Amino acid sequence: EAAVTQSPRNKVTVTGGNVTLSCRQTNSHNYMYWYRQDTGHGLRLIHYSYGAGNLQIGDVPDGYKATRTTQEDFFLLLELASPSQTSLYFCASSGGTGNYAEQFFGPGTRLTVL
Amino acid sequence: GEKVEQHESTLSVREGDSAVINCTYTDTASSYFPWYKQEAGKGLHFVIDIRSNVDRKQSQRLIVLLDKKAKRFSLHITATQPEDSAIYFCAASMTGGYKVVFGSGTRLLVSP
Fold it and tell me: Which of B6, B36, B98 sits opposite A101 (nearest CB)?
């Protein structure tokens, strides 16, 4: 089974702070995703990537940057954090054959912006 | 773009009863409908999916129904057990697309 790890697991920062969330997957998947989970909204896609150096914009990208440095590593950057970005962030990867691909999720990072 | 609406935000059932979670979608081009389960304090994991070329799929106690005409799909959990208690997310995706759109989640509580 694919392994997806995230760090840190918890982060507290202040408004205007700079935060980097890290994700690593070890199953050689091509696709990686960043989501945020908020009550009443479910999971919303921030950014995703289909390989090193590639970045695709998701549904709620404002205030977020992302970078895919290797096939394994995908980073989410909040350069000027705001309280509205307080959320639970999940990274996921997928890369099965065919047209349909199960996503494998990390354990999540809880971010609080004061 | 695609929107997925999950109709029940919470659902409580007694152990052994069936639970049904309903979702609707907007884009007729969507053809793949996975379901994910999130246990307390954990990430999501895949439980079952259905593709648009069938209208029913079963995996043990899980049954997924798809009504393409109504753009509606549902997850049926039969003979519920306490370990079924979790948040369940429905999702939709188009053929060839690795991007899925999730519903808002249904918190299922199975009580003894």
Answer: B98
